[in-house]
Amino acid sequence: MARQKKTIITCAITGAIHTPTMSDALPYTAEDIAAQAVAASEAGASILHLHARDPKDGSVSLNPDHFAAFLPNIKSQTDAVINISTGGSLKTTIEERIAPAEKFSPEMCSLNMGSMNFSFHPLAKRYESWKHDWEKEYVENSDTYIFRNTFNDIEKVSKTLAPHNIKFEHECYDVGHLYNLKYCVDTGLFKAPIFIQFIFGILGGIGPEVENLIFMKQTADRLFGDNYRWSVLGAGGSQMSLATTASQMKGNVRVGLEDSLFISRGELAESNAQQVAKIRRIIEDLGCEVATPDEAREILDLKGGDNTNF
């Protein structure tokens, strides 16, 4: 596989962790999700990683109707690659989590490569009052959540979505997830070139130290050789520093309000686009180029935006 020369920026617009109380910038209505997604694309994101929210209170939603309220709007205003999460919720079945992707057949989907503790309960201590009734309990109880992604679940996602020719963003929160992915590739569930998202800084996963990034990359090199592309997601305060390091290592990057609500230490981001603009400026100031959506499609061997169901 030829060496990649440009950096793909993914922007994760809203996610399923942060709640409306935590930031006024976090979008949860269809109009706001679409507007922020389009603005992020204009700022330099070639991939838009999307979750849905209930527009009434910002709670996590897997309702395909909530996706339908913003997907066509985004597609009509940008040529960015659409990536729909199959993580979506920590408390629902795998069938419910993949329903939006099965209906809309996007170019990409995220796919978590192992079960894990996944908690953000320390955030609950930061807020004395909440905008919506569901938020406090949701955040506090996350120390009881197990993010289920068994081998059976992974196989079900792969086989259900196989007819759609979707490229997966294989989310790996720890070294063992890379070995899970290797097993799945060896048994024919996924074909090269695969796209790996190294994730650092989630409570329950590997920590956000640079040494861990280097080790994850070395492990992936050993397991997959030249048959993969990779990106880095640093959660919280590690977002920009790890993205910068990844870009200098010839990797790709992911930013967005799903992963961090901040633009710098102690300062909330005004929008997803602000984070995209910052990392793009850093990447270009350090002598690298940012990939366009069509260049991202070529790098990742995607089916093209015309082959979706929205």
Major beta sheet, specifics? Answer: 8 strands, parallel, barrel
Q: What order do the strands of the largest sheet run in, or round the barrel if closed?
A: 2-3-6-7-10-11-12-13
Fraction of helical residues: 25-40%
- Counting DSSP E segments of at least 2 residues, the number of strands comes to 16
InterPro entries: Aldolase_TIM, BKACE
Protein name: 3-keto-5-aminohexanoate cleavage protein
Cofactor: Zn(2+)
Organism: Leucothrix arctica
Layout of SSEs?
Layout: E1 6-7, E2 9-12, H1 30-43, E3 47-50, E4 52-53, E5 60-61, H2 64-68, H3 71-77, E6 81-84, H4 94-104, E7 108-112, E8 116-117, H5 133-140, E9 146-147, H6 151-161, E10 167-172, H7 175-186, E11 194-200, H8 210-224, E12 228-234, H9 239-248, E13 252-255, E14 262-264, E15 267-268, H10 272-285, E16 289-290, H11 293-300
Protein name: 3-keto-5-aminohexanoate cleavage protein
Keywords: Metal-binding, Transferase, Zinc
Cofactor: Zn(2+)
Q: Can you walk through the features of this model?
A:
It is a single chain. The chain is of the alpha/beta class and 310 residues long. It has one domain (6-114, 147-307): Aldolase class I (TIM Barrel, Alpha-Beta Barrel), CATH 3.20.20. The protein contains eleven helices and 16 strands. An eight-stranded parallel β-barrel has the order 2-3-6-7-10-11-12-13, surrounded by six helices. A two-stranded parallel sheet has the order 1-16. Helix 1 (30-43) packs parallel to helix 3, helix 4 (94-104) packs parallel to helix 6 (151-161) and helix 9 packs parallel to helix 10. The radius of gyration is 18 Å and the shape is globular. The chain starts with 5 loop residues before the first strand and ends in a 10-residue tail after the last helix. The relative contact order is 0.19. GO terms for molecular function: 3-keto-5-aminohexanoate cleavage activity; metal ion binding. This is 3-keto-5-aminohexanoate cleavage protein. Keywords: Metal-binding, Transferase, Zinc.
